[in-house]
Structure formats: C-alpha cells, structure tokens
Write a structure and sequence with these properties.
Helix content is 22%, strand content 25%. The chain is α/β, with parallel strands linked by helices. It has one domain: 2-Layer Sandwich (Nucleotidyltransferase, domain 5). The protein has a 5-stranded mixed β-sheet, with helices on both faces. Helix 1 packs parallel to helix 2. The chain is globular.
C-alpha cells in the first residue's frame, strides 16, 4: 500500500506531520508491504487556488496513493479522496510521519469522518 502523509519540511519519516492537508509543506509517500516500510519519498505539495481543493486529491491519487493519514482536512477533499478510493485516517496529534505510519499499520487510527473535517473558512 502507498500511504501519503502531509508533512513539514524537509519531509521524510522523521518529519512532523503537517497540521492540515491542504496547507502542508510537502507530502511524504511511504510504501508498506507485509506491515513494514519498504520505501519512502518526499514530493512537493500541490498548490491549489481557492475552491480548487480537489487538485491535491488528484495529485496524490495519480501517484498511486491508496491511504492518506491527515490531521486536518475540509469536507471537499475528504469526499474527493473517498470517490477516488483512497482511505483517509485521522492522525492529529501524532508527532512524526514514522509514528503515524506505525499507528496505521497497528490499526490504531480511526477513519477520518465528517466530524474531523474543518469548515474551510481559512482556505
């Protein structure tokens, strides 16, 4: 499975998890096989104009992402990910990308629900 985690620069497994999906510095992509990390890479974030919240959704889906771990996200991108078949999990408060991935592998993260989403007024 390919997991995307919004990250603070410079990205990577030791990076802080970005507080909000749409306003992160970059994304860390992590390939997991048989419960273990086999590869990680950092890609730049995707700029989106006001109301263009689906651009980052397509950007990650086009790169084969099947799981997203996020702390904050608006309703439009959440619905976009679900339509693309990307499973979204709530990872707020987890310090590093590596810890977020480990929590997901261990089944400790809840699915991201509309209750977790932001109103989007700051976009």
């Amino acid at each position: 499975m390919k997991i995307a985690i919004p990250s603070v620069l410079p990205g990577g497994l030791e990076a802080q998890v970005g507080a909000h999906f749409g306003h992160c510095d970059c994304y860390t992509l992590v390939d997991v096989e048989d419960g273990a990390v086999v590869k990680s890479e950092v890609i730049p974030s995707c700029a989106h104009e006001h109301g263009g919240c689906l651009a980052p959704v397509n950007y990650l889906a086009d790169r084969g992402v099947t799981v997203l771990l996020a702390g904050g996200m608006g309703m439009r991108p959440l619905m976009g990910f679900l339509q693309e078949g990307v499973d979204v999990y709530y990872a707020a408060g987890i310090e590093t990308v590596e810890k977020a991935v480990a929590a997901h592998i261990a089944g400790e993260l809840p699915r991201f629900s509309p209750n977790h989403s932001c109103g989007g007024g700051h976009h």
